[in-house]
Amino acid sequence: MHLTAAPCCPLCHNADCVIYSADKRRQYWRCPECQLVFADPSALLDGAAEISIYQQHQNDPTDLRYRAFLNKLAAPLQQRLAKTGLQGLDFGCGPGPTLSLMLAEAGQQMAIYDPYFVNDPQVLTQHYDFICATEVIEHFYIPSREWQLWLQLLKPGGWLGLMTKLTDQVTDFANWHYKNDPTHVSFFSSETFAYLAQRDGFSLEIIGPDVILLQKAPGNSVGSIAGEL
C-alpha cells in the first residue's frame, strides 16, 4: 500500500500523527496528543455509499436483544440522571430510533437527530440535560465538529453517554473486526476520553469495554450554538 502524507488529527488537530496500521483497504493513523486512531481521509466514503450501508441496519425498537444491548448505556445513565422529566437528545439515532424510546419510557423528554434519517436542524438549537450517542462516534469523519457541537448543546452539569468499542481493549488491531466496517473511521480509547475530559472540564466514567459517561462541570457554562452540521 502506498503511504500518504500524515494528515492532521480530526479530533485535536495535532499535526504529528503517525502511521498505526494498514490493511488492503486503508491506512490508519494515531494521534500522539489525544490517542485517536483514524482512517486515512482518502478512504472515507461519500454520503451515498454511507447511507446505503446504514439502510441495511436492522434496528428494531421491539427487538428485546437490541434493547438489552442499548440498556448497557441506558441503565447507568438513568441512574445518574436521578430524576425524570429531563431534556435529552439521542444523537445519531439511525433509521430505527430505540434508545430514545427506552429513555422516554423511563420518563425523560427525548429529541432525536440523525444527519441522514432525522435531519431536523431545529433540534440543534436547543440545550439538553443529557445527550446520548450509541455506536455513533466511530462514524464521525471530523469528530472535533460533533464534539464541539455537543459542548454547546449540553447544559452545565449535563451528561454525555456514549457507546463505542475502545482501542485499548484490543490486543490485535490489525485483525479487529470493528475496524472492518468501512463506515467506522474514528477509533477512541480510554486515553482519548481522558484527554477530552481534562481539556473540556468533564468528569469521566468508563463502564466495561464500551460504555463511556462524561458529566459536564456545573460551572461549565453553555456556549452559543454555532449552527447545524
TrEMBL record:
This is Class I SAM-dependent methyltransferase. It comes from Rheinheimera riviphila. GO terms for molecular function: methyltransferase activity. Keywords: Methyltransferase, Transferase. It comes from the Bacteria. Coiled coil: none annotated. Transmembrane segments: none annotated. SUPFAM superfamilies: S-adenosyl-L-methionine-dependent methyltransferases (SSF53335). Gene3D superfamilies: Vaccinia Virus protein VP39 (3.40.50.150). One of its GO terms (biological process) is methylation. InterPro entries: SAM-dependent_MTases_sf.
